[in-house]
Amino acid sequence: MKSLLQKFGPGLLLAATGVGAGDLATPALAASEVGFAVLSAVIVGGVVKYVLNEGITRWQYQTESTLIEGAMGYYGRVAQYLFLVYLCVWTFTVGVALISASGIAFYALFPVFEEATTGKVIYGMGLSLLGLWMVRVGGFQVFERIMSIAIVLMLITIVFTVFQFAFQAHHLNVDHNQWMISRGSLDWYLAVMGGVGGTVTILCYGYWIREHGREGKNGLHHSRIDLGLAYFITVLLGIAMVLIGTRITIHGGGAGLLVSIAAVLEEQSGTLVSWIFKLGAFAAIFSSLLGVWQSVPYLFSDLIRIMNNGKEQVEGQKSPVYAYALYSIALIPMLGLPFGFASMQKLYAICGGMFVPLLATTLILLSIHSEKANKGFKQSIGLNLVYLLIVGVFLFLFIGAVL
């Protein structure tokens, strides 16, 4: 286990954090609404996130600074405040979605309440506090081990469920219209592309490789390998949930998503298969909550340090800002639990999707600026064109979804 974590630890953390919010709930909800068309969104989203994360990681290795340090220094004071506002809004929406999803997943395992929404709120609040305690007390090594176990568990259970539920069904009624992307489905398509593999949490990978002490060309080589593994796992699980989502009608606006899937599984394949799915779903979603609780405070800590002109020298988990951000992430989003799960899930995915073109644009601008200033960040014209294409695709989808 120790050798595996040394080689692939940051990548496994990235996969476990992204899977759950973006790669279970959103693809399943979207597939239930618009069909197989969202399969391409899962695949393209995974490829896009790999390309962007490779660029961010390369920036960190070549400049020995995080992307936030580079971007905020380039954009200036106004951008720092705007990003702080955006980060607060994103954190609230993703926090609500993760607490809700964790509560529902645990309710699917232990349905002691009459209503799923009641279980969502009570279980969700308890699991948020549990995640807070595990991050605060356990430290990075304990966190990494728990997340690695979770990613293995979710892989085994979700893939097993797909074979039982989708491929062993007596027949698959596939309407050719399910493969078509209509104007009315662009919002879901954007939500899946934005949510798959994480959004703002992409930035957290750089802090995890720092915890591992990676540096230089050898570190970049290892990072490219475990990033590839992370997004392969992410896409695989996203496809699995699309297949499941097309086989079930989700009632109640999404609050009973996992309960509904588990009920159909129990009817078609038995109690054992149903429990295996519920266990894997809970592992996926709670590990995502735990990953966000552990990683996003790094961003707040780094940003506040930059806004204070580096006056706060303490970095990482020892920073007071890290602790304040951790408590805020675990507690404040509880206020949003009365809102519907499906609406919050979709809102945070679209909100995160808006971050992707901004990230691609930042990498383009930093590469041009670094070349002029001779700061050591090297990037080909071809790769900048790829980033420009990513910006164009997301803006097209966003405009089509809004208008």
In the CATH scheme, what's the topology name?
Amino acid/polyamine transporter I
Q: What would the principal axes of the Cα set say about the shape?
A: globular
Mean pLDDT: 79
Backbone structural class: mainly alpha
The CATH architecture comes to: Up-down Bundle
Proportion of strand residues? under 5%
Rg, Å, rounded: 20 Å
**What's the helix-strand series?**
HHHHHHHHHHHHHHH
Tell me about this structure.
Helix content is 78%, strand content 0%. The chain has 15 helices and no strands. It is mainly alpha-helical and 403 residues long. The protein has one domain: Amino acid/polyamine transporter I (Up-down Bundle). Helix 5 packs parallel to helix 10.
Keywords:
single chain; Amino acid/polyamine transporter I; mainly alpha; 15 helices; 403 residues
Spell out the blueprint of helices and strands.
Layout: H1 2-18, H2 21-34, H3 38-63, H4 67-75, H5 77-109, H6 116-167, H7 186-195, H8 205-211, H9 216-245, H10 257-269, H11 271-307, H12 320-331, H13 341-353, H14 355-373, H15 381-402
Helix pairs in contact: 1-6, 1-9, 1-11, 2-7, 2-9, 2-13, 3-7, 3-9, 3-14, 4-11, 5-6, 5-10, 5-11, 5-13, 6-9, 6-10, 6-11, 6-12, 7-13, 7-15, 10-11, 11-12, 14-15
